[in-house]
Amino acid sequence: MSTSQPPRPDVDQELAGLKDFQRRTVDYVDARLWEDDPTRRFLVADEVGLGKTLVARGVIAKAIDRLWDDVDRIDVVYICSNAQIARQNLARLRVGEDAGHEFADRLTLLARRIDDLRGRKLNFVSFSPGTSFNVSDSGGKAEERVLLYWMLRSQLPQLKSEFWLKFFRGGTRLGNFRNHVKWYDRSSIPTTMSEALVAELQSLPGQRDHGTLLEEFFACGDQFKHRREDWWPEQGLSSWRYNLIGRMRQQLARAAVAALEPDIIILDEFQRFTSLLHDNNPGAELARALFDHGEARLVLLSATPFKMYTLPDETEGEDHYQSFLQTVQFLAGSDRADVIKDQLGDLRRGLMTGDRKLAEEARDSAQAELRRVMVRTERLASTPDRDGMLGEAKMPGLSLAERDLHDYRFLSRVAAALGQPDMLEYWRSSPYVFELMDGYVVKEELERSGTHSAEVRIAVAKNRHLLSKRQVNAYRALDPANAKMRAITQDVLEPGTWRLAWVPPSLPYYDLSGPYAAEASRHFTKRLIFSAWNVVPKAISSVLSYEAERRLVEYAGLHDRRYDATRQRGLLAFSKSEGRLTGMPVLMLMYPCTSLAMAGDPLSVARAVQEAIPLNRQTLFREVRKQVENLLSQLPAGPSSGPVDDSWYWAAPVLLDQVSLELPLVDRVEFSYGIEWDEHDSSTRFDEHLAPCPCSIDPTGRVRTPSGGPRGGPHQCGDRGLGRVRPACDQQGHRRA
Asked: How far apart are alpha carbons 26 and 63 in whole angstroms?
């Protein structure tokens, strides 16, 4: 396939929006990657909030400019541990107006996009590593199994037999899997990759006395012949089947790496998957095959590339020094890592013996080596006056209580009885330490042998402040039990924010009311808290969420409610009760009605009434009601007598869009049930809710104008947001999008 030639990106324009300190980082990283004594791996360790993603975009822009005349196809790969963040940041990293972009949850699924990459000069590809490199001996996602099925079937006519669907369906219902196979876009699968996959299966050794993996595959598949449609394989056969699919997925992932041909790779928050950098397993080998492909440059992003400090009791036995050396070894290689290790040893000896010259020389040498492969900008250095863009504020409620000291004495006694280190750091950082911590050596030792220690039993018996199930179930008020936790609780909950469903808008379109109108609540925003201890996030979320829920229960007068009571589930479901469809409001939540979204747009209302934002609430409500009533008046009238059909409330939005798109009202609007991969649900109940859709309603004086949905319903807000992102689209084009 010929490669199209888009316009060359303007690197100066791409870098124009960067701050000075970001531009300096971009220039330094670019020089280290491509100029004198270049390195193929580099770490950007800028402090949180200083724009590492923007720096990465600048590095990508300069790399593209360097490669443009020499490389036929430029592939930029972005890897992030979170799929949602990967999708978001991929758009921020794109350089050039005509660059293609592809996202796949898994490396295996890139196989169907390879031909698209080959047809473009510049490509941006993103995926997450957890499910891409750690391809275990399992069936994976249904989408992967469908892809495997069609790749193999295109080369192996034997797979046309129906029983092969039973083999590949995994845990998906056969009917759903059959639909996935039927509607799969086979045109996106490269023939060359299908041929290569089958060739690999023919050459790889099989297990269970089978010569090749392909022979083993057919032998296992024979066990699925002549089975009823509702048959499920027994444990042994199912495990054998999944093991085979897992090995084929591994080969598919390797083929995707070989076809990807990356030029620059961005590895974001890489500290979340450092095992891929150091371990010796198939997943790590696959990752390194990608990182070391051809002349690809690898840029790692992380504000915390390794732990700065650890204690002997650290979770999972982590060691900050070994973590540091592993990171340096990955970036610079074993030889240079040994040099840095020796220099740090000289630095320590110089400091311990008072040999200032030795210490300074070792420090300077270590810095020079580290700067070959990493750079860091800290907040203090990002502003000329070195104020770090920070301001110091005192937190009210930061107070030490007598019970806090009793808690520390209790923790110390238990730790001493178990032969564990002092608990001061944990006590300073978290309340209810033993109740909330997980994975720590001292907690594991307490659970293992604590009941056998008389000293531990006595300490527990004397402690009057331990959490009890009875207290929590009864929604009794709990002391935050820690000076810092006490301050956070007062800062976050005392302004009344426990009554808010979400964070208040920073720029509201109209006057706020209820709890949002309170002065303290209007200015409430998120808090970002840092801690070195894993127990702290759990402690903060547990204490704050429990206290917020306790206050809500008390405010609602639910005195008989218990914390462990069964919670109401399945609120967004297409339900049926006593033969009556009860999920119609859910359908309204799912359907984004463009007509109502535009009618309830506060910006349009502000322009119409010529008033500034935020609008007066009553003015907004009055104008929206007029707009909705005007829309309803365009619909044909229903019967002149008899009860009003309640289904009008959810059918009206569909009919309104038919009017706005100039579609005949007598035409039935078709909806498809969006089955997710590996979804075990059925479309039957969904179809039942669509069946009674009327083609006319009764817009008489009894009309109840749906005022909340047009203004602030999630479906309408999303529809309006899309319309503002693409203002050039007309209504019909917007609906198609």
From this structure: 10
